[in-house]
Amino acid sequence: LGLALYAGSLCAVSGATFLYHDYCVIGAGPAGLQVAYFLQQASRDYIVFERSHAPGSFFALYPRHRKLISINKQYTGKSNSEFNLRHDWNSLLSHDQRLLFRHYSRDFFPNADAMVHYLEDFASLLKLQVQYNTAIIHVTLEKNEQAWNGHYFLLTDQDKKNYKCSSLLVAAGMWVPNVVNFPGSEYVEGYETVSINPEDFAGQTVLILGRGNSAFETAENILGVTNFIHMVSRSRVRLSWATHYVGDLRAINNGLLDTYQLKSLDGLLEGDLEDLAIVKDKKGKLHITLRFYLENRNISAGIDSITLPQDELDNFATRAPYDRVIRCLGWKFDFSIYNRSLRMMPGKGNIKKYPQIKPSYESRGTRGLFILGTASHSVDFRKSAGGFIHGFRYTTRAVHRLLENRHHGVPWPSTVYPITQLTNSITKRVNEASGLYQMFSVLADIILLRENATAFEYLEEYPIGVLAELEMQTGRKAHSGLFVIIMEYGRNFSGADKDVFYYNRAVGEAQHAWQSNFLHPVIYYYKHLPTEREMKLRPPDWPLPRPDAIHHIVEDFLTDWTAPNAHILPLRRFLENCLSTDLRNFFAESCFLFAFTHQKLPPFCQQGYLRMQGLVGSQELRHHAVQAGLLQDYTHTDFSGDRPPDSHDGSQEQLMRDHAIPVRPLQHLVNAKDE
């Protein structure tokens, strides 16, 4: 049947005219606009299809009560724009400083109307190629060996216009409401249509199905006018501060928890919604019962003929009738427009609302089809921020870089540094990089070592799920080992049942850095690129396979990993142990001495002093080095001659005396590594 339908669809379009683009993007929400920006910057042939008359149509309706839960921090005390993106959860990535969300709202939790305005400006100011009022209603494949991926994607819109593209980027979001069908579900109002006027609920008793932010947002809106609110869901409440997952319940919406725990009538219940049933009485009140009570019963015969739980258990929790029942169960992906030839399948278990994709965000069923934005969240569901703007703006950039390498031969962007800059490069990135910070345990910086570890190549924000494919996906080589830098929470610190405020919850000493609980940098060292098999067999809850060496930079209360003794010194020692080299910086005097006493100079002397580069001595630097015990104080040495050593007449003899080699014992100099 599937083959027949596929053949029929090909026959239907075989005589049609197609408008061709290399890249087709479905949806002009935040993810669609973000990938359009990157495609436009690379001068690629693309088109974005948007079914509405303006971008970001989802935000024109949702959240219903108009307050976003993505933070908009105006001030951080720093002017570093990359660092500030760590605390700006709404801006998309662009070169235009006008398109920072702080210019559109000063509210910490902005109004959704500001997001609509922002997305409209993002599309118009950057002149993105968006075709509005175009609803794609069918997508299928056309086999062609000349195509990039062995096939073209054929798209049809509501006006029967046809489009063809080599790569399909789906950024349509999640907008189909999750609905649970049970006896009496026709009496349930949906979050997408329920009144947002609190006065419509005055003096009523309300049951809310669901336990996410939309459910608590709805409860918060009517909390002060209802008799009481009950909330039922199959799982216990998950607080975002305990799970460290921004999609769980946020503090801004949790007023119902107060009234529940302080016994002010409202309450939370756990139960499988599919086991419920709702019966309506003659007065219009809604009674909650269980499905099995209705077996072999005629509901239309009236409530008097139906056994209710309180008939057997007189203190049944939901025995009081309700005036209204509201469904707030979130959304799921719309699979209906995709032909079976694309093999777009839903995930399994708790990610069944998402399409199945690889860690590279490419569909498991069809090469060249990528899922972007909220719908790509199955890669890091309940683990990181990939389902939200402040996460998928970075994963979208990663997908674009993968496409640039695959289709246009443009390798993943990288920078080559001398090995002496290794410690500095890592320190800089862990202190300011926003992609690592937001997409913790998902995106990583990769350091590829050059032969003999004299230099390294730095790649930013690569998806670690495809680490084994790094050479193929990036066009870069990893022949001499690599470091992987990611951000992690402590292994046992996050969870719905965790007490994250317990005494001594943080670690402050470098020797206990591996026990850090809060978000902190972790550096993995591999002598060889991990294989696909090693990735699959990695330990449970580990983002990467077991490395040859691992280093945790101790957590910091200020998320400022620049302390010389607690952060930088242990990091440098770790890198030196991995590379069997000395990564310290030296004064010219020390390099001069090493040149006469060692067969191999430290890299800083090789790449600096011997090339007439490096630190030039001065009175202040020399005084500091003497005070630190790094150099011998020779200013009071008894020089022969008529002039004191600090008198300069430009003679060669006096110049040599001023730059005399310190007489500090060699062994003391060599052992100064930890100073």
Automatic annotation (TrEMBL):
This is FAD-dependent oxidoreductase domain-containing protein 2. Probable flavoprotein which may function in endoplasmic reticulum associated degradation (ERAD). May bind non-native proteins in the endoplasmic reticulum and target them to the ubiquitination machinery for subsequent degradation. One of its GO terms (cellular component) is endoplasmic reticulum lumen. The gene is Foxred2. The keyword Glycosyltransferase does not apply. Belongs to the FOXRED2 family. GO terms for molecular function: flavin adenine dinucleotide binding; monooxygenase activity. It comes from Rhagologus leucostigma. Interacts with SEL1L. May interact with OS9 and DNAJC10. Interacts with TXNDC16. It comes from the Eukaryota.
